């Protein structure tokens, strides 16, 4: 991305015109009075008539009621019937017009922006006019529902705003008239949106309205107001209801403004947000990681509260609340894993749910719901029930009015001590203390390695263990003891008290830390009151008091976070030169002069638990509509994958174990659902979001951001590095100024460093290595040595019957390491026939489709100016032909100067592709004379003479018969015989010989080494492979080496023979890649000093390395299987250089910091509004530009698709925290 100046337009000219057409339509509920072209007057008149029709019906009914010709109920029924008939007529006309014009299709691609489509009007009731004004409904059921609802809305709306009712409420005819007129504007807006044409709402939650729910949004809100008014009418004289009705009648006038500003949520968001708020603050639960879990948990929790109300015994209530509170606070998703445990260690958090490798510590306590977990949970439940029952039975009746002298007094002071200790022990676990203001003096400094960090952190480990015991074992029992002895349990049979105690007993387990804080606040209030009674407060009961305190603490926390975000946006809009727009001074002056209004907006958003929306991320603040903590409607785990996604997928398992430890220690602070964290390692950015929280577990979502950084991404990544360096790489002794957090205003606050097994990525330019003539001459000898070693190893493995077991892996990389064998418990027997050079498969298909001699009559973009060119004879082409049985294509020379380039990832984003590989030209390829007899160069397998070995054990090292049939003259191989490394062959044979039988004698080994027939056999095969690869003389150039490394072998006389044996071809290609890796290592570390060193190096390559290409599937699989090392050769076409890439799996420190959650929610709310409503998808828009304080670009990336574009996103992962 190219960074642009701060004065880039917020919306380009086209989008500005589009926005100013759409916004009036949203305000009025659907009428399109502003078009981009000239329309006949009847278009506007028809819309105005339809808009005012409900008002006409309601006005007539109101007039008849005022004249006492109709009663109020009959007047409402009349207006409703008239509106029902009008709505049915509109739907019928729209359906008829749709059928009339359904047979005529518009040519060209459909325009997704319907508002910009120019319509040709013929007359006032033509099908085009009708479809423009009233497009009609998609589903027939919605036609019926919306029509009936329109009649009911008009009927109840007439009843709601009758002048008699308004006069009774306000006692003034003039006020009633004003309210009457403006109220009908609101009703007309809702009716038009429901019946005629639905406007695009500024409060958009779903990207698409599949089931036509949006037309119901405005009528439902009106019905909510009407329900309150009807309750006031038909209930007795309740002053609170009358006051609420008066206020709501005034607020009813401002509904169009609230709809236009997007403050009121759509129905789906309202439903999910309401359930989440009731579940958390009313029933003591937690936000859920999915909509289904939220609905299920809400139903069960509400059922528990209802049961509490009907249980007659207070002891029964205490025991029932304790048991259900504990059980509902556990991770119930593990119950399914427990039921399926006999099948195959199914995990709810591992590969099935998270699609990631299982955590290294997945067999530790809490990862699975096994026998030990069930036993521990059962013991905790029995202990809690025994404590609650005994304390309530013996002490609840002896409760004193004074907390100082009653049975609750010791528990109260214990709670104060527990809270102080838990808070202190949690604070010292992080890099900063006191809300991120000061550096933690006891936190380790200068973390050079994982071992050093763990040694320095040993003292904090002990403190974390003490905190864990106090928080998860002592605190819940102390809270239950306090609640069990509370005197308000005697007055339980009331809805508030039943709900309050059901919540209190559950939150003691669900979130012990928050429950401890809430209980401490209640205790402090009681201690401060002393013997004095607080009538309003004491009558609520402890359960309701805890509910109110919890709600107040949450809203206060949100207010402070939103206020910090507001100040950051305001201050940086002026102090950051690259963010300072021409309007910055004006906006700052307006915010300063309207400071009370600004504080009111922040307060309202905190009270509603709604995001604070900075419009275009400017200091223009609006209240976003309330939505669930997850912020997005879709399921967790959607991403925009690319080849780099595997690195995040690999590290997610180890990161899960590291997060589990950090959560248990408290290093990341309070783990409230909705919290966001950012991890940084080398070029990787990990976004972690807390989805769910319970007793002993936490559910998170891990996202990976793109590795190919844009300029905006780089600017913010550099600032992230600076923030982490200031926290973790500081001097031992700190002064007063050095102890302050100089980046406190930043959205990121460093917390801790986690030890995670990740791949360290090192890239080297091979200039001076791959183009050195000395190295190229050495490459031929190393290739023969590697090939001999692989041939002998092939024989040994074949003798043991495990040649192509899972130990060899898929591809060119060889066996997996022992650690990966332990992590990968399932075997994958893959035959050698399935192992091909993947990077040439698409190339073959392309050539067969567009370059064959039988298809050059077709004209396409791939056609050459001078006519079609025949396919080049590469090893991939020959291999595929031999495998598929197709006839051989005609061969010939390519046009000089032409280059063939294909991509393996044809359907992927260009930014995710590896550099294209130069496949060569194939110039001077000899013609194939099909009449020439080649039998003089080779023997058929049936005519080969039987080999006679001098040693009986040599039969083990015999090679397949087909490998001896190379079409080459014996004199030619005899000429190359001096190249064969005889000494190395004997040495490798002496090392492989004892592997077959442990009791092999020295004489037997000597006989193997002296078997000339065996040596000649291996020399023939090795030299034949050398000639087939075109390296008979030497490897001549870097481009030739790169082609061979990629498997793009030029045509040679032995190519068909080599490719016909897939096993031998794979061994030859693997040997060449091994030899190039030997060249790379020897150029960097020095030459091999002995055969033993060469042998051990090849063993290490086979055991611990994957040597291949980044584009191959084997590379992807090796990363996921956590191969210790990976090597790849690449070509940078832009620079004209060859590069070597080495991945090393090691335990590294990943620095993690907490983000301002309200800042993230606010930016995501603006992103949703800007893309879904304003359709501002410009890649260079202002709101996506780099912002070092808000981390605006990274936050946009981390949003769920289609608005964001993380390259990896895990399914909900459940971490144990005990």
From TrEMBL:
According to Swiss-Prot or TrEMBL, what is its membrane topology?
A: Multi-pass membrane protein
Keywords, A to Z? Membrane, Transmembrane, Transmembrane helix
Name of this chain's protein: Pecanex-like protein
- Asked if the record carries the keyword tRNA processing, the reply is no
For this protein, the parts annotated as crossing the membrane are 49-69, 75-97, 139-162, 168-190, 248-273, 294-311, 374-392, 413-439, 587-608
Q: Which PANTHER family match?
A: PECANEX, PECANEX-LIKE PROTEIN 4
The yes or no answer to whether the keyword Cytoplasm is present is no
**What top-level branch of life does the organism fall under?**
Eukaryota
Annotated GO CC locations: membrane
Q: Where in the cell is it found?
A: Membrane
* Chief subcellular location: membrane
